[in-house]
Write a structure and sequence with these properties.
elongated, SH3 type barrels, 5-stranded antiparallel β-sheet, Alpha-Beta Plaits, 3-stranded antiparallel β-sheet, alpha+beta, 8 strands, single chain
């Protein structure tokens, strides 16, 4: 690429100029030509990237329209909606533009140094040695940058997602090539290096499951309790705003465990991502009211009926 641009500059600027004019006019004019060609190449490359982004967004909108109204709700719930897609494409486009600009500017700078008579071989050799030394010393930086690049391109998470990094659970506030900024439930801001995030759970993509475990006394009629729990949770499918948060009707899955004189019955509901805690709180409130209305109390740990005296089960 350097040779082609030099050839173009030589073609536009005559080389048969006298020595004084070559110094005063030829070299500066060639530098101007190089700068103009570099600016034009940068402009064209950025326009091509913008065109690709527009076409990608257009195709995505067409796919969303083809899904229809129901498909649009599912797409929004699964993170496939337009806003999330546009954010990911825009981030990737910014990275590509920056990389292309760096290559073009670096090439133009090397050409200008060559025209000024500065030997490039020692400079490139020194830069290679320095780059190697910096590379060994900045391995973590390179690791963080590459991890951040793949996280963004693969859309592992984005701003607004609730993620679990293994050490902290919080909402993503900022994603860069080097770090990810999270804010946990206590309001503490955490800065996580992308290269140190070895595993990550995203609670905002796809859907979640609201789970409520209800403990009742061992002597209670499980079939009766199951019916009460089902009747208490069923109205959520028809009431606002809960019906918009549910992707499936709540169901009583049955007995989850039996221990210490109590029986645990589980209620689950498939909900939109990030709405699990909200639906769980509402389910607990309704279940508590229903159990009180039917005089069903939480169990007190103690011996099982018929157990020997002094036994705790």
């Amino acid at each position: 690429m350097v040779d082609r641009l030099n050839a173009l500059a030589s073609h536009l600027v005559p080389t048969a100029l006298p020595e004084p004019w070559e110094t005063l006019v030829g070299v500066p004019l060639r530098i101007v030509v190089i700068l103009l060609v570099a600016a034009l190449a940068r402009f064209i490359s950025h326009r091509l990237v913008d065109r690709y982004v527009r076409n990608a967004n257009k195709r995505h909108m067409e796919r969303l329209k083809a899904l229809g109204a129901v498909g649009g709700v599912i797409a929004s719930a699964t993170g496939y909606d337009s806003a999330r897609h546009d954010q990911r494409i825009a981030t990737a486009a910014t990275i590509i533009k920056s990389s292309v600009s760096f290559i073009i500017v670096g090439t133009a700078l090397l050409m200008i140094l060559d025209l000024l008579g500065i030997p490039l071989a020692p400079l490139l050799a020194s830069a290679g040695v320095a780059g190697l030394a910096i590379g060994f010393g900045a391995q973590s930086l390179v690791k963080d940058t590459l991890s951040g690049l793949f996280m963004i391109v693969e859309d592992q998470y984005g701003v607004g997602d609730v993620v679990d990094t293994g050490t902290v659970v919080g909402t993503v506030e900022e994603v860069t090539l080097r770090i990810t900024r999270l804010r946990d439930g206590d309001g503490v801001v955490w800065y996580m290096r992308n290269g140190e995030i070895l595993r990550l759970g995203n609670r905002s993509q796809g859907w979640s499951v609201a789970v409520v475990d209800v403990q009742v006394a061992y002597t209670e009629d499980v079939a009766r309790v199951t019916g009460i729990l089902g009747a208490a949770s069923e109205p959520l499918t028809t009431e606002e705003p809960w019906k918009d948060l549910l992707l499936d009707a709540p169901s009583v899955t049955g007995i989850e465990s039996m221990a210490q004189g109590q029986v645990t019955v589980r209620v689950t509901a498939k909900v939109r991502a990030n709405e699990r805690d909200t639906v769980q709180r509402e389910l607990r409130t309704r279940i508590k009211s229903a159990l009180d209305a039917h005089n069903i109390r939480m169990p007190v740990p103690g011996p099982y009926p018929g157990s020997p005296p002094g036994s705790t089960g």
